[in-house]
Design brief:
Helix content: 40-55%
Radius of gyration: 19 Å
Shape: elongated
């Protein structure tokens, strides 16, 4: 296993790709907005699309959201306009309790205590690899991955809201699309 701190330039990208092609499991970081954008970023750095499709197994995007304070979070029913903007209906909330941040001495009046991750994992199957070879457009890759049931950052965040762990505002703050 090889850990590459961050891929910022062509030289580092080439080292990571060559290591992966020779059988090493390579983990690295790359700054992008979502998992599909990592492909475009690697191409922009100078990695050929055929090398990306041959060497990358999966790409994970992550963001941190603040966790609601258990001492002061208050039940809340979002309005229809908020639900609509998130692509949800009232029926989605039936078995869930939504909370809003209030603030207390335990959380220094912020309404939050700690942070947790929301995640998106793009697995490069044959369909995605073919797409990378023909059109390395991140929007097309993202759409194809979602058709294959990839859970997006926003969807994972909404699930954590429905579990009462964070707020819709937090998810929208870090996962805008």
């Amino acid at each position: 296993m090889i850990l590459v701190g961050e891929i910022r330039d062509q030289e580092t990208a080439e080292i990571a790709v060559q290591s992966a092609l020779t059988g090493h499991l390579v983990f690295s970081t790359l700054h992008t907005n979502d998992s599909a954008s990592a492909v475009t970023r690697l191409v922009d750095i100078g990695v050929e699309p055929f090398l990306i499709s041959s060497s990358v197994l999966a790409i994970m995007a992550q963001r941190l959201v603040r966790v609601l304070c258990d001492h002061c979070k208050t039940p809340f029913m979002p309005g229809s306009s908020m639900l609509e903007s998130l692509g949800l209906e009232t029926a989605h909330l039936q078995d869930s309790q939504i909370y809003k941040a209030v603030g207390c001495e335990q959380c220094f009046h912020s309404g939050f205590r700690g942070r947790m991750g929301i995640f998106e994992v793009l697995q490069l199957d044959e369909n995605i690899k073919r797409l990378i070879l023909t059109a390395f457009d991140s929007n097309q890759i993202q759409s194809a991955a979602q058709r294959q049931a990839m859970i997006t950052l926003r969807e994972d965040g909404i699930e954590k809201v429905l579990q009462g762990q964070t707020t819709f505002e937090e998810v929208l703050r870090v996962a805008a699309k």
